[in-house]
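[stage:ingest] chain + small molecule (zinc ion)
[stage:ingest] validated
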Amino acid sequence: MENKLSFYNTLSRKVEQFIPNEDGKVAMYTCGPTVYHFAHIGNLRSYIMEDVLEKTLRYAGYDVKRVMNITDVGHLSSDADTGEDKMLKGAKREHKTVMEIAKFYTDAFFADCAKLNIKTPDVVEPATNCISEFIHMIEVLLEKDYAYESGGNIYFDTSKLTDYYVFSSQSEKELLVGVRDDVEADDNKKNPSDFVLWFTKSKFDDQELKWDSPWGVGYPGWHIECSCISMKHLGEYMDIHCGGVDNIFPHHTNEIAQSEAYVGHKWCNYWFHVHHLNDKSGKMSKSKGDFLTVSLIESKGYNPLVYRMFCLQSHYRKPLEFSYEVLDNVTAAYDKLVRKIGSLKEDGAVEEAKFAEYRAQFEAALGNDLNTSSAITVLYDMLKADMNDATKIALVKSFDEVLSLDLMAAHAKLEADNGVDAELEAYVLAKIEERKAAKKEKDFAKADAIRNELLEKGIVIEDTREGVKWKKA
Ligand code: AMP
Ligand code: ZN
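[stage:predict] done
[stage:export] tokens:
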């Protein structure tokens, strides 16, 4: 297959041509949500852009298999190994069990995704389904001497790797500051950067979900989930792994460490990271109280797809600041765009050469490190270009396979409305003719009855010098 797509690879720190391991096929993995609360619209920025990436690959002809985990255990309050389990915090907050919380917020997450036209990945696997796989991987890491037991927990030994900090040119010290700001040192670790694979002892002994393991009753660390779940469904080689930039360290760094130690070769070739959505006060966070959700923006009267368009108008590798003023502007632009598309008429055959020309331009924009705002510009240019409406409609439908903005919605509605209007018009005109005939027969009672019948249906008729006119009341 011809490789037309290039993306920025966090691993090589370059925009690189995308070449999957197997021709025509893509093995793709996404770090799923931690289901202890609603997703904020920042989280959803990452999932929107990953959805566009998946759809771009499909648009280019790849057969994509995309896998996502649901983090329902092991993600502690800091992304490293300290703090309370986020799920347990959610359960306490709402006086529910961890599994009730997990079910409720998993459903809420997919409901938000549906409103944003984010496709559900081919495989979605909750971490709590895979405990035996986690235990197996940890056993192998212990056998290979990449892991050790200390103070009741199993740790990954980062000193066994020649290059643990694969993503970063930053020094070890700088990176550790980021993680360890609010974190006390764990004396069980041989090296400060070591991380937990399995907990049997933590400060939070009231952990609700625990499982038997060869090392005692406990629960898995967060990072092991993604390594195991991706390998369970995609095998030992992966093409693209996605997440938000905050996942780069320590989560993805740790995933690579343990996965490559386990399989003994390079694991994933491309790492795709979406930059953060911020609000005026900085990074969006769930601990800030009233955080921004899809339901909140919907309750303020915004169409969730306008938020999707807001995300598509900027590049995924730039931080994006959210404001209602910008969302208002995008709403106006979206409504205008959809109205314009709604006014297109099926007026003949698709002009194939024009179709191919604009489809190629659209694909080239996306293939240029997922330049979604350029792809939208191609859409606007195409709508202004010299070609028949049928070709424009075909192109809008085609582009919307990736943009997923329901661009044809107004068109479909208008067509439906036109259908109703045509039916209504035919009925009213027939009644007007009937009334004319009654008047000619001097049957004024019948003529008045027809007028009243129409009035009951909300139609007002008027006798004018130019003939009978009608309108909706
Ligand atoms: P979590 O539910 O915390 O595991 O996060 C789900 C996804 O959202 C991960 O890929 C994070 O990297 C991503 N994420 C977290 N905060 C933001 C943000 N403010 N903007 C964009 N993505 C984010
Ligand atoms: Zn992950």
